[in-house]
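Regression check, zinc ion case 66:
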Amino acid sequence: MVKYARCNAILSLALDASGEGCRYMSKDDTEDGVVEDMTKHMGAVHQVDAGELVANIRACTKTTRK
Ligand SMILES: [Zn+2]
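Current build output:
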């Protein structure tokens, strides 16, 4: 099973570098891995301090069976 979270589910108005809705998806074996990856993505692409959004990221993290 894999944990995943979509950037757009957390930052509902997030746009990517070309101004499109951000479709970035973090995947990892653990929720902590997803949080870490998404934190880096938000800082690098959206200039968002995800430190305050950790609870939000966790709430948006889902599990797939793939
Ligand atoms: Zn994004």
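Comparison notes: The chain has a mean pLDDT of 89. The pocket of zinc ion is lined by residues 7, 14, 22, 24, 41, 45-46 (CB under 6 Å). No diff flagged against the previous build.
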